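Structure request: SDR family oxidoreductase, Amycolatopsis suaedae.
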Amino acid sequence: MRVTVFGATGGVGVQVVRQALDAGHDVTAVVRDPARLDAGPHDRLEVLTADVMDPAAIEPAVAGRDAVFCSLGPRGSGPTTVVTDGVRSIVTAMRAAGTRRLLVVTASGFHTEGDGVLVRGVLKPLVGRMLRHQFADMARAERVVEDSGLDWTIVCPPRLRDKPYTGRVRSRVGANVRGGFSIRRPDVAAYLLRAAADTSLVGKPVFIAAA
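Returned structure:
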């Protein structure tokens, strides 16, 4: 595949870049600061320095790609629109380029479908208050994706951990994975790469967690 990764210097994004290269894919990593991309030189890696908020600047990065991955994250703890604005720009660029497949990482924390009573009634409200601005940004971004008209999949993980790859992931379409409180970043990246080729996941939100 030819793929493009936004948020490539983040914890999940850099794992997508590394694993995609290891799998033999051609990768374009869109970054603001190339020095922050911890992926090393590779003959199938193109690093594009561009502002994700500028659709015209990123259109060449998505043109002709088989899949586009977005793992942008909110900055800081205050009100933010970084994810929403970034996703909107990516969608605009993909429409202009005629590229269809989009996979966006958000979070399971602001969704309650499938949760048990304790998680839904006690834990999620507590976490939601602490991360309300970040969650609000991601929720708005999900609506942009859902209205995009593209072949989208939204992937919603719980708390992300910096631990080695296991390959053990539980997934559920449309509702949280019961008892799924965390997942490792390399496992999220591996799931994203598999999901890109899974046409049964087009137009669906998928919730994942460690097995």
